[in-house]
């Protein structure tokens, strides 16, 4: 006998926009764009009113202004968004034993077994009310037997909606939807399937799995499973102690500030690349120093979630300046990123141009292909040897 799971997906509605409207209620109900202020900037988020004009995230700001000249444009404040994200995370952590933070504004919660007690439907409905009451932010959710169906269902009832898909109704719920609603079907795959006459999830689910495998490889099998509402992926418990770090013990103790700063740049750049490669953002930076007498000191700073070198570097440099106050020989230098969440570089950018985004993408593309040491900042190059001790968890 198969025991049904109870998985809920929760998604803060137009999160960046909702935070701005909470700070300034005058903005409610208006076409609002959060993003870079110049023509070369990009849209980080937009209100549902702005979406009616065809505006969407990652769109060039120049095009967005053309589609909706009356839209209000604000630069955004990632520190505020990070703060509210952490607030909602704390509310969920206080109420739910097992939850996964899948992005800055999305969560999965596993309520399996709770139907015997309080009831899953009542619990998640009450959680929605609590989040809205304590944070002031609107949130939508869906309750289903797996992560896939719950996420798709949430997207169907936004904004400020709620929906339950009873166990056994997964296929019938998905069947009439466009194939573009299924996670993992991008523009190219969607166009390919459309040319074959496959437009709905129902039609996709009827294609034999071996045929989809021949057409799309391993991804074809996974798409067949999704079209049939099958998803056994677990809710991965959220753990903030996950980190990416590196430290270097020098062959010779040093007081050379330029050398130490060069090492800091090199190490920060290295693990920032690792952060982006894992599609994560960091919410805290820690710098560690060990002096020649083996005294070890650390200093950390909470930051707005980011994966951008220039922000992480500036934070690391500021921490180093505050930390290195003894003017003693240094034996070891380390840096660590913590408070990691899934996400990508783009969502943390509001003032950067399209060129800056493309520059990061190009740098990471070169590093992915030829190795991370092929490109580095000149400031991070030094001649003194070190003994690296890396920890990337």
UniProtKB/TrEMBL annotation:
Tell me where on the tree of life, at the top rank, the source sits.
Answer: Bacteria
| Ranges of residues in domain UmuC | 7-186
Q: Please provide the record's keywords in A-Z order.
A: Cytoplasm, DNA damage, DNA repair, DNA replication, DNA-binding, DNA-directed DNA polymerase, Magnesium, Metal-binding, Mutator protein, Nucleotidyltransferase, Transferase
Query: What catalytic activity does the UniProt entry give for this protein?
Result: DNA(n) + a 2'-deoxyribonucleoside 5'-triphosphate = DNA(n+1) + diphosphate
Q: What class of enzyme is it?
A: transferase
> Recorded E.C. number(s)?
2.7.7.7
Entries under NCBIfam families matching the protein: PRK02406.1
Explain the purpose of this protein.
Poorly processive, error-prone DNA polymerase involved in untargeted mutagenesis. Copies undamaged DNA at stalled replication forks, which arise in vivo from mismatched or misaligned primer ends. These misaligned primers can be extended by PolIV. Exhibits no 3'-5' exonuclease (proofreading) activity. May be involved in translesional synthesis, in conjunction with the beta clamp from PolIII.
Subunit and interaction comment: Monomer.
The name this protein carries in UniProt is DNA polymerase IV
């Amino acid at each position: 006998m198969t025991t049904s799971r109870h998985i809920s997906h929760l998604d803060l509605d137009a999160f960046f926009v909702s935070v701005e409207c909470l700070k300034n209620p005058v903005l409610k109900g208006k076409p609002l764009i959060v993003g870079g202020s110049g023509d070369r900037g990009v849209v980080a988020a937009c209100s549902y009113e702005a979406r009616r004009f065809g505006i969407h995230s990652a769109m060039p700001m120049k095009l967005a202004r053309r589609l909706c000249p009356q839209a209000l444009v604000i630069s955004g404040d990632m520190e505020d968004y990070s703060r509210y994200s952490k607030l909602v995370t704390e509310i969920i952590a206080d109420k739910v034993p097992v939850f996964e933070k899948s992005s800055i504004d999305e969560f999965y919660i596993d309520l399996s077994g709770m139907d015997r007690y309080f009831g899953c439907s009542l619990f998640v409905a009450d959680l929605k009310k609590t989040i809205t009451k304590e944070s002031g932010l609107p949130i939508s959710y869906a309750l289903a037997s797996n992560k896939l169906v719950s996420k798709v269902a949430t997207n169907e009832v936004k904004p400020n909606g709620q929906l339950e898909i009873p166990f056994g109704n997964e296929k019938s719920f998905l069947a009439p939807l466009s194939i573009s609603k299924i996670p993992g079907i991008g523009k190219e795959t969607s166009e390919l399937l459309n040319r074959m006459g496959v437009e709905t999830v129902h039609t996709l689910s009827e294609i034999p799995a071996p045929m989809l495998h021949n057409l799309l490889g391993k991804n074809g099998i996974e798409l067949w499973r999704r079209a049939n509402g099958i998803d056994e992926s677990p809710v991965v418990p959220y753990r903030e102690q996950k980190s990416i770090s590196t430290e270097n013990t020098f062959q010779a103790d040093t007081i050379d500030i330029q050398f130490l700063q060069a090492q800091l740049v090199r190490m920060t750049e290295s693990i920032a690349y690792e952060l982006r490669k894992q599609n994560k953002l960091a919410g805290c930076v820690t710098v560690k120093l060990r002096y020649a007498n083996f005294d070890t000191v650390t200093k950390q700073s909470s930051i707005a979630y980011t994966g951008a070198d220039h922000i992480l570097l500036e934070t690391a440099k500021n921490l180093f300046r505050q930390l290195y106050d003894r003017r003693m020989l240094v034996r070891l230098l380390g840096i660590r990123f913590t408070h990691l969440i899934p996400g990508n570089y783009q969502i943390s950018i509001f003032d950067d141009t399209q060129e800056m985004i493309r520059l990061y993408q190009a740098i990471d593309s070169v590093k992915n292909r030829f190795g991370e040491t092929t490109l580095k900042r000149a400031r991070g190059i030094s001649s003194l040897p070190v003994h690296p001790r890396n920890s990337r968890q």
